[in-house]
């Protein structure tokens, strides 16, 4: 074997040497000199060249200068080779967007009418597709045919269709394609309908469904060519089939809206020509007719008129009971409609680790989400009117000092003192700081903010992207609501921190004056424990006028109903997440609409039960209702007064601190004396002398520090403080009362903190992941550990109350001094608004002088006040339920007449079929509503008919019964499982029962623990003394010296 010697170019032909000063060049790939293969490399394959693009868009092919390449410094760098397609990072995105546009702008509109025809011919897919309905292509024979795998429940069938109109041909066969052009797979419409219904009742999981289906068909020898191809294509078909259904619902809704507007126009003309006869009509009916005549002067189409005369069509479709009446404003109601606000931080979405955008625009046809522009606009308004304050430690300390020295009073338009509002703000701020909320470092979307009506129906949602509960989300939702309401309509708003939202709106003018004049703020019932008592008297829906028995917790129930979406939406796309939530809301709306009649019936029964109890209490106290209402008004005025001068309050607080330190010092001195006695006698009580010496040294160190602290605090006391200190030293009764006052405040704080923790526990009663289960157990154990401490504090407080009674009997108290009530162990942890834990009767100086009002000193009057307030709320609820009963019938009558009018004017067979289906649906809905509400009273006279005839209603009821009951024989029932009685129960009802049972069991365990501790402490005198000395270490054989010297956190006693 021989090798040819390599040839070297002559020195004259060599390229100039490359110097270090020559820059690194970028040239097109076709300009790079072609190198010869080395000898012996005949089997090697040289891959084609690829073009590389720099960030600025220029071609980035490196030019490596070699000996035979020549000088290419003049070659252009802004053009590629031209031989290959340039692959940029956005190529896949652009391809996906083109496909998306093809679906949305061409394929779905082209399939809409054929789909309507298919529904009519198959009776909404109840019947099989006939061969006559199949569409055949009229193209020439040379057009390419494509093979499509058709997936059914039990088989896979491959068919041939023309590539020019594949989607239309597949739809005519009852199939839906996976792609708009040349699909390789199609899915049976019945399967898509089934999966669509399934995924709103269970966590949506396309992967699990497709894996199951693929395995099921695989067992029957039906296989696809590629692995995982079903999941990718099935998801596309399912999504665009849902878009086709949305388009169908939208066009049917437009026909109904047009018919409704024509019908309303005719009614307007008739109402102007014929003035109604007002004889034999009660006052309420006259108010209703006058409101209708006033509305008839303007266009009833509120969506197109400059001034609305009734709620928008959007709101009327969201909740018929709130917005379906022709009477927009009732002067007898403080709020015409009641809504609630809340945020949810579990419905969040993770950031895409690979980056990328949101994908093509995909918004639900009936979306309930505010647009990003609306939220951004309100955010800018808030930022402009209330710039963010500095959060540095120095600024925080300055704010604390300013609030401590500021004069308490009322802010403009507020009925609660500034000190109370600050207390509520600090309470919820501390609670929020303890909650683990979504972080923007891990999540792109951090939660949802919802606005719901009192019937738990969603009005609007806002997608949150901030880590906390910012006010601009709530303000954007409120503003959107009022844009859809007539100018005379009033709204009651229940929010966890309603007092703070009201304060901000008044202080910074976030909302227009027209909105603020028609908006009544309140706080939700289940979160009222975080507010001060004075705040609850003004904002609690059970205490203030206008809210009836509405609790304001509809958002919490809604968050519970969509919790099944949490796992899948964590990793979904931006628009996919919003679209999925919109689908779930649509399903919940349909479910809730059928249950509105049952909702009214249940609320009426609950109202009557509470009303009966309140009337029984009033009969027992035997005090006139007018007197009780006057006493309640006097109590509100007295207990919502601003605090006295802050300087006096600060002095009292400093005196309390000094007395507490004196008490602690006495405990340390007693323990040192006991240890000295043990060392002197040689009786170490089975302890080592080193342990005793260590304890004595630690106690002496603490004692020295306390003495220095007492000395410094005495020097800082002013004249009033020193006088109060001297007064306390010489008056045992005042000392004990101050102890009780401080202790009760401490109990309230501990109970409130525990309630916040329990609130999270109750929300997570059914976890979705193992980590949530661990968190559930951790929260439960943490809360349980705090219960004995609260019970001990309650026992200490009750002992102090007994001591106050003894001191008063011995003549050591003022004659007019009021003894505070004890804390009952029953319901200690409930924190109900009517519990005595909120009252400080007999614990302040004001109760020592002057006449004692009945609301303060008379137990009978206090019970009567609670009953009369409860009775007033029940009467408000009765009036609202009667109005909603009338509104339900009015909405049904209008919808029924609109469908009939649309059927009369429609000449399209496909649309007639859809309108007929709507008529049957309304007939069934009317039958259910009328049957549930026939025993409920109406606020004003209504027609005898709801729209459908008696025959139509009876047919609808028979159809409902035949669809709801199975003809099960006794033998079949006997052989059924034991759990079969729960098969038909409502899932949400079972969840509510489970939540209630969990909470009751938890509280029962707490009450049992409370009872055991009460009994143990009552029967053990030494334990009482030990509890009184909490925080003062003493000798013990059951703990280490370090634990024995650790002070307790609840030392509030003065000896």
TrEMBL record:
Residue ranges annotated for the CxC1-like cysteine cluster associated with KDZ transposases domain, each copy included: 128-220
One protein family per Pfam: CxC1
Membrane-crossing residue ranges in chain numbering: none
Biased composition (Basic and acidic residues): 297-312
Biased composition (Polar residues): 63-76
Biased segments, Acidic residues type: 967-985
Region: Disordered, residue numbers: 1-21, 57-83, 270-312, 380-412, 965-985, 1028-1055
PANTHER family documented for this protein: CXC1-LIKE CYSTEINE CLUSTER ASSOCIATED WITH KDZ TRANSPOSASES DOMAIN-CONTAINING PROTEIN (PTHR33096:SF1), CXC2 DOMAIN-CONTAINING PROTEIN (PTHR33096)
Name assigned to this protein: CxC1-like cysteine cluster associated with KDZ transposases domain-containing protein
């Amino acid at each position: 074997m021989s090798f040819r010697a390599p040839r070297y170019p002559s020195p004259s032909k060599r390229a100039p040497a490359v110097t270090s000063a020559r820059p690194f060049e970028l040239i097109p790939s076709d300009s790079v000199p072609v190198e010869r293969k080395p000898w012996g490399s005949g089997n090697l394959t040289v891959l084609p060249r690829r073009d590389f693009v720099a960030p600025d868009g220029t071609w980035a092919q490196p030019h490596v200068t070699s000996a035979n390449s020549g000088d290419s410094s003049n070659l252009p760098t802004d053009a590629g080779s031209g031989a290959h397609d340039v692959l940029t990072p956005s190529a896949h995105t652009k391809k996906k967007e083109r496909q998306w546009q093809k679906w949305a702008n061409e394929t779905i509109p082209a399939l809409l009418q054929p789909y309507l025809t298919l529904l009519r011919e198959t009776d909404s897919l109840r019947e099989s597709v006939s061969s006559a309905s199949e569409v055949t292509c009229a193209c020439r024979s040379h057009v390419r045919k494509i093979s499509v795998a058709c997936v059914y429940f039990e088989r896979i069938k491959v068919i041939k269709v023309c590539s020019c109109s594949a989607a239309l041909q597949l739809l005519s066969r009852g199939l839906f394609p996976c792609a708009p052009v040349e699909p390789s797979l199609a899915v049976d419409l019945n399967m898509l309908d089934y999966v669509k219904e399934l995924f709103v009742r269970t966590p949506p999981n396309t992967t699990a469904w497709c894996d199951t289906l693929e395995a099921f068909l695989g067992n029957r020898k039906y296989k696809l060519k590629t692995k995982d191809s079903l999941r990718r294509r099935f998801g596309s078909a399912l999504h665009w089939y849902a878009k086709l259904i949305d388009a169908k619902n939208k066009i049917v809704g437009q026909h109904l809206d047009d018919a409704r507007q024509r019908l309303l126009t005719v009614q307007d003309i008739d109402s102007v020509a014929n003035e109604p006869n007002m004889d034999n009509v009660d006052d309420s009916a006259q108010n209703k007719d006058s409101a209708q005549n006033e509305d008839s002067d303007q266009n009833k189409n509120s969506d197109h008129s400059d001034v609305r005369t009734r709620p928008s069509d959007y709101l009327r479709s969201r909740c018929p009971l709130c917005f379906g009446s022709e009477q927009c404003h009732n002067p007898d109601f403080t709020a015409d409609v009641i809504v609630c606000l809340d945020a949810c931080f579990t419905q969040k979405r993770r950031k895409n680790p690979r980056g990328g955008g949101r994908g093509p625009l995909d918004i639900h046809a009936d979306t309930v989400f505010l647009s990003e522009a609306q939220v951004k606009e309100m955010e800018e308004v808030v930022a402009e009117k209330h710039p963010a304050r500095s959060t540095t430690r120095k600024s925080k300390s300055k704010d604390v000092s300013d609030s401590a020295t500021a004069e308490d009073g009322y802010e403009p338009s507020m009925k609660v003192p500034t000190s109370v509002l600050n207390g509520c703000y600090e309470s919820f701020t501390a609670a929020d700081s303890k909650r683990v909320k979504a972080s923007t470092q891990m999540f792109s979307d951090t939660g949802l903010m919802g606005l719901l009506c009192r019937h738990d129906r969603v009005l609007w949602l806002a997608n949150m992207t901030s880590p906390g509960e910012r006010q601009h989300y709530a303000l954007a939702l409120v503003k959107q609501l009022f844009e859809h309401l007539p100018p005379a309509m009033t709204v009651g708003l229940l929010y966890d921190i309603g007092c703070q939202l009201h304060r901000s709106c008044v202080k910074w003018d976030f909302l227009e004056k027209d909105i603020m004049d028609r908006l009544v703020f309140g706080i939700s019932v289940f979160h009222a424990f975080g507010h001060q008592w004075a705040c609850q008297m003004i904002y609690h829906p059970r205490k203030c006028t206008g809210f009836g028995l509405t609790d304001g917790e509809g958002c919490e129930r809604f968050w519970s109903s969509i919790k099944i979406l949490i796992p899948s939406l964590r990793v979904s796309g931006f628009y996919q997440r919003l679209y999925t939530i919109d689908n779930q809301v649509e399903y919940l709306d349909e479910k809730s609409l059928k249950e509105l009649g049952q909702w009214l019936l249940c609320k009426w029964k609950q109202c009557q039960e509470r009303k009966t109890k309140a009337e029984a209490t009033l009969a027992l106290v035997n005090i006139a209702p007018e007197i009780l209402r006057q006493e309640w008004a006097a109590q509100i005025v007295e207990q919502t007064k601003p605090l006295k001068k802050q300087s006096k309050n600060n002095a009292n607080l400093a005196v309390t601190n000094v007395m507490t330190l004196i008490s602690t010092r006495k405990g340390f001195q007693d323990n040192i004396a006991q240890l000295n006695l043990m060392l002197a006698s040689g009786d170490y009580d089975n302890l080592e002398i080193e342990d005793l010496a260590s304890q004595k040294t630690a106690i002496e160190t603490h004692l020295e520090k306390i003495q220095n602290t007492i000395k410094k605090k005495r020097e800082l006391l002013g004249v009033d403080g020193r006088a109060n200190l001297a007064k306390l030293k010489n008056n045992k009764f005042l000392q004990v009362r101050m102890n009780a006052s401080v202790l009760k405040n401490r109990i309230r704080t501990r109970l409130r903190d525990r309630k916040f923790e329990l609130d999270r526990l109750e929300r997570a009663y059914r976890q979705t992941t193992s980590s949530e289960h661990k968190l559930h157990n951790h929260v439960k154990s943490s809360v349980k550990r705090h219960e004995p401490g609260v019970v001990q504090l309650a026992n200490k407080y009750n002992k102090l109350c007994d001591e106050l009674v003894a001191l008063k009997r011995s003549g050591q108290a003022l004659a007019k001094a009021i003894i505070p009530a004890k804390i009952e162990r029953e319901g200690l942890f409930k924190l109900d608004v009517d519990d005595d834990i909120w009252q400080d009767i007999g614990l302040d100086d004001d109760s020592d002088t002057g006449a004692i009002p009945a609301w303060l000193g008379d137990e009978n009057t206090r019970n009567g006040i609670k009953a009369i307030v409860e009775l007033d709320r029940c009467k408000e609820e009765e009036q609202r339920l009667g109005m909603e009963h009338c509104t339900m019938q009015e909405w049904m009558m209008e919808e029924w007449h609109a469908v009939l009018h649309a059927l009369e004017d429609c000449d399209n067979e496909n649309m007639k079929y859809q309108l007929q289906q709507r008529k049957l649906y309304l007939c069934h809905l009317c039958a259910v509503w009328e049957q549930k509400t026939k025993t409920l009273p109406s606020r004003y006279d209504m027609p005898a008919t709801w729209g459908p005839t008696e025959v139509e209603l009876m047919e609808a009821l028979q159809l409902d019964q035949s669809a709801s009951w199975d003809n099960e024989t006794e033998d079949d029932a006997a052989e059924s499982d034991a759990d079969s009685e729960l098969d038909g129960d409502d899932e949400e009802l079972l969840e509510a029962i489970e939540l209630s049972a969990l909470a009751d069991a938890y509280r029962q365990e707490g009450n049992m623990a409370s009872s055991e501790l009460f009994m143990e402490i009552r029967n053990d005198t030494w334990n009482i003394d030990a509890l009184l000395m909490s925080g003062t270490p003493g000798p013990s054989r059951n703990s280490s010296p370090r634990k024995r010297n650790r002070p307790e956190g609840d030392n509030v006693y003065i000896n």
